[in-house]
Write a structure and sequence with these properties.
Elements: H1 2-19, H2 33-44, H3 52-60, H4 65-71, H5 101-107, H6 117-120, E1 122-124, E2 127-129, E3 147-149, E4 157-158, E5 171-173, E6 181-182, E7 195-197, E8 215-217, E9 241-243, E10 262-264, E11 293-295
Parallel strand pairs: 2-3, 3-5, 4-6, 5-7, 7-8, 8-9, 9-10, 10-11
Antiparallel strand pairs: 1-2
Helix pairs in contact: 1-3
GO biological process, one term: bone development
Family: Belongs to the small leucine-rich proteoglycan (SLRP) family. SLRP class III subfamily.
Keywords: Disulfide bond, Extracellular matrix, Glycoprotein, Leucine-rich repeat, Repeat, Secreted, Signal
């Protein structure tokens, strides 16, 4: 079949060569270049002067499609190239599929509504911002979350599994929610948690907190007399800032960590203070250098009644001396 096709092709090409018109050379007169050129071109491309037979030969020089298909080898796929599927899966810009694990890694785990957390919130590197989204629960967070902000929402409870296995979590800020209940193990097992901010909520009882904390702000809650466990801050050797304003507390939670720098207890119901609240009365040479910011204003306590309690401090507490 291939030999026959080549023979037919040869005959067609031979006939076309024999019957093709011979073009006469054009001599240009430089003095009358424009006129001679235009006239020569008109004669050259005047198809009305071509005999009918020649015109037919020109048309016949097109290779029949059947012969062209026989002579043209089928294109072979390149090495390693796979054939396309009839129905291709939708792809993201980076080539991944929405069902692939990479998609989950970028947009985070899915919420209860099967919506990726990082589409609902804003994820920048290891920080997740969920502020002011009317959330009523903490959404599932990516495993590498280090900083989590979910302020000005409607979260009512923190469950024990909300932060489970988030070993890189360093800061939690849940300011201005409706939190009234926290499971006992909600924070305790977070090995890197340094900052916990729960101000402006409805918390009545603090759970056990990790000893890694350096910053705690639980201001404007409802802790009252029993909301803080005894010796709750004793083993927090790295704690620097403790803010417990507006909680209706009637006492200062003791003992206080040695490295504590700021203690804010304003606008509570603290009535009295012991002489060893801040100092060590058994060692009169003891000086607590770090604790230089104590706020007790807005309490019914008279600071002038316990002058021995401040001998070891670099500064006097702020509060009523009358």
């Amino acid at each position: 079949m291939e030999v026959l096709a080549r023979l037919v092709l040869g005959l067609v090409l031979f006939e076309a060569a024999v019957t093709a018109p011979t073009l006469q050379p054009i001599n240009y007169d430089l003095d009358n270049y424009a006129a001679d050129t235009m006239e020569a071109l008109d004669n050259l491309y005047n198809y009305e002067n071509i005999p009918l037979g020649h015109a037919e030969v020109e048309i016949a020089t097109m290779m029949p499609s059947g012969i062209r298909e026989l002579l043209t080898p089928a294109p072979q796929p390149e090495e390693g190239e796979e054939e396309e599927e009839e129905e291709s899966t939708p792809r993201l810009i980076d080539g991944s599929s929405p069902q692939e694990p990479e998609f989950i890694g970028v947009l985070g785990p899915h919420t209860n509504e099967d919506f990726p957390t990082c589409l609902l919130c804003t994820c920048i590197s290891t920080t997740v911002y969920c502020d002011d989204h009317e959330l009523d629960a903490i959404p599932p967070l990516p495993k590498n979350t280090a900083y989590f902000y979910s302020r000005f929402n409607r979260i009512k409870k923190i469950n024990r599994n909300d932060f489970a296995s988030l070993n890189d979590l360093r800061r939690i800020d849940l300011t201005s929610n409706l939190i009234s209940e926290i499971d006992e193990d909600a924070f305790r097992k977070l090995p890197q948690l340094h900052e916990l901010i729960l101000r402006d909520n409805r918390i009545r009882q603090l759970p056990e907190l990790p000893t890694t904390l350096t910053f705690i702000d639980i201001s404007n809650n409802r802790l009252g007399r029993k909301g803080i466990k005894q010796e709750a801050f004793k083993d927090m050797y790295e704690l620097r800032h403790l803010y417990l304003t507006d909680n209706n507390l009637d006492h200062i939670p003791l003992p206080l960590p040695e490295n504590l720098r700021a203690l804010h207890l304003q606008n509570n119901n603290i009535l009295e203070m012991h002489e060893d609240t801040f100092c060590n009365m058994k060692n009169l040479t003891y000086i607590r250098k770090a604790l230089e910011d104590i706020r007790l204003d807005g309490n019914p306590i008279n600071l002038s009644k316990t002058p021995q309690a401040y001998l070891c401090l670099p500064r006097l507490p702020v509060g009523s001396l009358v």
